[in-house]
Structures are given as C-alpha cells and as structure tokens.
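Re: that backbone. Tokens:
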C-alpha cells in the first residue's frame, strides 16, 4: 500500500480535503499520496512564518549552523530512502537520484558553514572634512518570511537551495514543492521536524496554483524565490509589487567545440550534458556548435555515443535515460521535432515518443528560429551546427533570448577569455558542458533566464538587507 505523506505546516502534520496522488512516470503506478493545502492552511503558514520571524532572526550563528547540520545528518541517515523516492516520483535514473542526494548534502553542509560567515564590514567615512571622527559599520540582516516555489526536475536540491540559505540567515520559509514530485521534500520535512527548527520556521505545502496566489501577493512575505519556466517566473515578478524576487528560469544552453579541443573528453561530456535526466535540466546542452575542421571527427563519433545510451527502468543502475515526467511531455517534444523537420531539419537519430519515453535525438540543418533551437526544449533533443570562426559560434549562442550557462571546449586561452567576455550568459564553463554546477558557485542567468543568483553565499545576499550604522566617535 502506498504511503500517505501529510502536509508539513509550521512544524505540525496536517491533512486536507483534497488528495494528491503522485504517479510514477515509468510504469504509471502510485508512488504515494499527499494533500493539496487549503486556502486556510496557506494563511496559517504565512501567519506563523510572520510570528516566527522575531525568533528566527535572533538565533545566533552557531544555532543556525547547527540546525542545518542536523538536517544534513538526517538526510545522510536516510539517503537511500530519499534517493529511491526521488527516482520513483520523477523518473530520474537511480544513479542520478543518488547524485542529487549527495549534492543536497553539500548544499546543507555549505549553508551550515555560511551561517557562521555572515559578516559585515567597517567603512571609513572621513573621506571629507565634515565626516571626520565618524565610522560606518555595515551589517546584513534577514529580510523576513520567504516564499519558495520549485520545479519537478530537481525536487530535492533546488528546494534546498532556497530553504538552506533562508535558515542560514534566520528567515522563515514556506515551500511550494511541485505537484508531480512533492514526496521527496515531504520526506525531508520528516527530517526537519526532528532538527530543532522553531515552530513556523518551515512549512512544506503542495498547493494548487490558485491557492498559491498569496505567496505572491501577501505583503507579510518579503521575497519570492522561484525556479521554473520563464513565462511563469516573469509573470510572478509582474505581480509581486514591492516584494524582492529571485528567479532561476530556463535556458537553451549552447556548447562550442573548438578545433584542437580534446574530442574524446568533449564527446563523452556532451553526451552526458545533452541527455541526462532525458534533457529535463535547465542547463542541458541543447545547441552544439562544432568547428568545421573537426566536424568529420566529432559528428559520427557523437552519434555513436548517443546510440549507445540505454533507455529503461530508472531503478536499474545501468539505465542512462528514464521516462520524461509524463507522456504529454514526450508528445509535445515529438511535435516540436516534427515541426523542425517541416522547416528543413533532418533527424539523424531518434525523434520518436514511446509512451512517456522520448528517444535521444540529434538534429542537423535546423532553422535557428525553430522551437527546438530558440525555445527551451526540456527534452533529450539537441541540434548540431558547424562553424568556421570562433566569434561566429559565440554570436550564435548569443542570438538566443535565454542566457543561463554555456560550455566551451577549446585549447585557446584567447578564445576562452573571449567567450568569458562576450557570451551573454550567467556562467561560462571552459572545457566542460554548461550543465556543470558546484552548489556554492554563483548560479543564475541573464535575459529571459532569470534575475539574481543562487549558490549559498549569493542566495544569502539576496535574502538579506544591508544596514549601515554611522557612528560618531569624536
């Protein structure tokens, strides 16, 4: 019998009148069930978060760090259970689910350390005669209760990237996990409930979009941290009023393979970057630009790598690609590929949906304006283009209205720095794929890809306010 996961409301377990069944995208079975929060439960979460803030903001650094360390220890103790839950509800291959748990541990451990490094600075004010005998002291203070909204594809680590920095600085947080993959974080709620968090410091509530509206509009919540699609994210910002907004949105990441690059390494990494978790990662490789001088070496070898990938049961450690999150996503992807073909693209391998699975797909001769190039495909589909001049490839990547991360394989230091200076993205990854992320680094995008930065220290800066004391000493 499937487990029932209650809502975690301000440290208490609750149910509601509306059940939410979570479906395994691989076999259609029920992984477990939980509940959609009611409007009154959302109101209670906001009210208790506001009541908790005077307590959480006064917690000393060692206490905030210990709370996060306690959650990390609990997650470590239940890591196999959490990885399996994540695998079953998301369809993510078990080895990738296990990797996400490892990253979640790093996120919590790093946040615990950052809680102890929330420093300010002393600023000399006597730069002019009338300010003689004065000293400035700048310090960061938590801004208040935070609403966090996360997507299905990294149900653990993306949520922890919001919860952990909030706890590190003393902000209560209300998390709306994704309706398709809520059970992972409700499992973490069981861990958090034993960590010693003050009542009201954390609520984890699946909720319908209509019920979630107060997370955007209620003035008691001082910030929205959202990860998801560009259309939804920018729509939230338009409604948020004076509320601070942190957006980590989508992309259609490009990678450049320059002449002289280590092709064996590039091939393996780009295959991983293109097809991990069936391409349902916002920094998945979507567009590949290959120097003409190495095209004949790269492209046939790339197709061979792609055709070796194994589709199958996500619980099988040998599986490379599991299903997409639902059959509708696979059908939508097939429609986009068919549309690209009608516009002149050629399918070299793949291109078909099989239930909730979509074959790893490589296209050539695609129009840059087709959806598979210009929009976020969020599927195991890549387009490959030749280029002659390095600057040409940079221009092509910049032609997108997204700008999250880009990868560049090159032996040229000059080209590496040119890419760093000229690529219109939040992160330039040299000699690796754009999917590369270590959880303490600044992470976010430009253009339609977002606003602000995550990564523990950088998220902490977003979640705090600098206050200055100007002190007259003489």
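Recovered sequence:
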């Amino acid at each position: 019998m499937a487990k029932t996961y209650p809502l975690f409301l301000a440290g208490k377990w609750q149910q509601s009148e509306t059940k939410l069944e979570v479906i395994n995208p691989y076999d259609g079975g029920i992984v477990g069930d939980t509940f959609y929060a009611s409007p009154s439960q959302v109101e209670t979460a906001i009210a208790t978060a506001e009541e908790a803030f005077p307590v959480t903001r006064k917690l000393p650094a060692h206490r905030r760090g210990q709370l996060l360390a306690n959650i990390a220890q609990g997650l470590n103790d239940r890591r196999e259970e959490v990885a399996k839950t994540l695998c079953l509800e998301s369809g993510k291959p078990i080895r990738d689910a296990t990797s996400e748990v490892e990253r979640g541990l790093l996120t919590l451990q790093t946040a615990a350390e950052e809680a102890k490094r929330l420093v300010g600075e002393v600023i000399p004010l006597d730069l002019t005669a009338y300010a003689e005998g004065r000293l400035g002291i700048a310090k960061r203070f938590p801004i208040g209760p935070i609403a966090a909204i996360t997507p299905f594809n990294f149900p653990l680590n993306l949520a922890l990237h919001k919860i952990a920095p909030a706890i590190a600085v003393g902000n209560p947080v209300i998390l709306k996990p994704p309706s398709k993959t809520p059970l992972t974080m409700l499992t973490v709620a069981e861990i958090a409930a034993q960590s010693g968090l003050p009542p009201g410091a954390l609520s984890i509530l699946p909720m319908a979009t209509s019920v979630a509206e107060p997370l955007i509009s209620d003035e008691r919540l001082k910030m929205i941290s959202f990860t998801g699609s560009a259309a939804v994210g920018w729509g939230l910002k338009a409604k948020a009023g004076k509320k601070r907004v942190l957006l980590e949105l989508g992309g259609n990441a490009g990678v450049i393979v320059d002449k002289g690059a280590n092709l064996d390494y590039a091939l393996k990494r780009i295959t991983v970057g293109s097809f991990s978790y069936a391409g349902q990662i916002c920094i998945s490789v979507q567009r590949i630009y290959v120097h003409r001088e190495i095209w004949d070496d790269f492209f046939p070898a790339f197709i061979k790598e792609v055709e070796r990938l194994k589709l199958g049961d996500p619980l099988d450690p040998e599986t490379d690609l599991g299903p997409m999150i639902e059959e509708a996503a696979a059908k939508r992807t097939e429609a986009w590929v068919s549309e690209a073909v009608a516009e002149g693209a050629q399918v070299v391998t793949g291109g078909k949906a099989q239930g909730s699975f979509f074959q790893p797909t490589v296209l050539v001769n695609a129009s840059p304006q087709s959806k598979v190039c210009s929009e976020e495909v969020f599927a195991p589909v890549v387009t490959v283009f030749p280029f002659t001049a390095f600057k040409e490839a940079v221009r092509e990547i910049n032609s997108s209205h997204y700008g999250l991360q880009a990868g560049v394989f090159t032996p040229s230091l000059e080209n590496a720095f040119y890419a760093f200076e000229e690529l219109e993205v939040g992160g330039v990854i040299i000699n690796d794929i754009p999917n590369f992320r270590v959880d303490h680094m600044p992470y976010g995008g430009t253009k339609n890809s977002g606003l602000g930065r995550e990564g523990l220290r950088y998220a902490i800066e977003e979640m705090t306010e600098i206050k200055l004391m100007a002190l007259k000493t003489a």
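Residues 3-249+449-472 form a domain with the Aldehyde Dehydrogenase; Chain A, domain 1 fold (CATH 3.40.605.10). The first helix runs from residue 39 to 56.
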